[in-house]
Give the backbone structure.
Amino acid sequence: MHHFEYRNGELYAEDVPVRQLAREYGTPLYIYSSSTFAHHFKAFDSAFSSIPHCTCFSVKACSNVNILRLLGSLGAGMDIVSGGELHRALAAGIPPERIVYSGVGKKHAEIRQALEAGILMFNVESMQELERIASVAGEMHLVARISLRVNPDVDPKTHPYISTGLKKNKFGLDLEQSLKAYRRAQELDGIEPVGIDCHIGSQLTSIEPFIEALDRVMRFYETLKSEGINITYLDLGGGLGIPYHAEEPPHPVEYGRVVSERIKDSGLTLILEPGRVIAGNAGILVTEVVYTKDTPSKHFVIVDAAMNDLVRPSLYQSYHRIAEVQPKGRPERNVDVVGPICESGDFLAQDRDLPGVEQGELLALFSAGAYGFSMSSQYNSRLRAAEVLVEGSTARVIRRRETYADLTALEE
Ligand SMILES: *Cc1c(COP(=O)(O)O)cnc(C)c1O
């Protein structure tokens, strides 16, 4: 479900023609729909309404402070993975007691920053991290609330780069090590173990891996109880997929029902860390065709967006639907849609059947709201795109396009 629809033969973002936004703000341009964000957040959050829970949006999926503020106003907490993301969440006015901190490489200063802020908990991913958090908390005469991120060794059946819950992944601790870590956490002065955490991967399109992971984690929870380690939070991470193409991921309502049934009698408070399922279909990337080029083996559509703007196709071989902003009903041809970057890996689509588009026309890449702008870079000294947020018939720039002065600002 999203609010990017064709009306009178052209694409609209809510009630604003995309063509008009592209003319006003230039391309490449990220356009977000405020009501799509709200709809997705509410649909997800309400799927867990029968149990105590906090839905913590995964900041890395779409990190603009205006988006975080929008979600925060709907009651969202945040899942952060760096000091920078903590800064963004606090700048967006997110209450610290709704912030959880994940990630394998938290540095001393970042731990300090999070303790100062008073976040809900750290999701700890190694023994050394546990010791370090204890020592930083000790220095500050504070107690750090922690969860251990357990690695349930479940195959999420997604792209290897976004699988995180397998034994071979760098994330979390296996169940055996986790037990030792909880025992150690019990002994440490600066540490209060309050939760258990897992996140097995991203863009999951079936419910089974979630259930398998949950069942393993719940068995582990029983083990902890039998050892007298009493925790109150169960963090299930994120990972629910979205339909980019032909995928049919479980609906949040189904996910919510299955999870709620399993934990409702435990008394645990659930933490959820959805990213993609909230943001993915709430954003599009609009780009202009710069040239078309026919070679004996391929037809290329060269556009002004590139892998620095949207890296997912290059990095994960992922599919983004591409369509004309003003469809003209021309016959399709098989093309590669590529950017101007000097890398053969710079493509937005390969072997795609697209209507025969021409120079100067606009294309929309759908489902670009998650891991789109947030993964962008300045590679090839390209200016990062502007971001625009549409709400009904109004649009506002929530991040201006970078300028050449921005490019060199930190270098002189
Ligand atoms: C990336 C990430 C998420 C969000 O994943 P999605 O697939 O976008 O829902 C949640 N938790 C952790 C720890 C992550 O690294």
Q: What stands out?
A: The mean pLDDT is 96. The first helix runs from residue 18 to 25. The radius of gyration is 22 Å. The first strand starts at residue 4 and ends at 7.
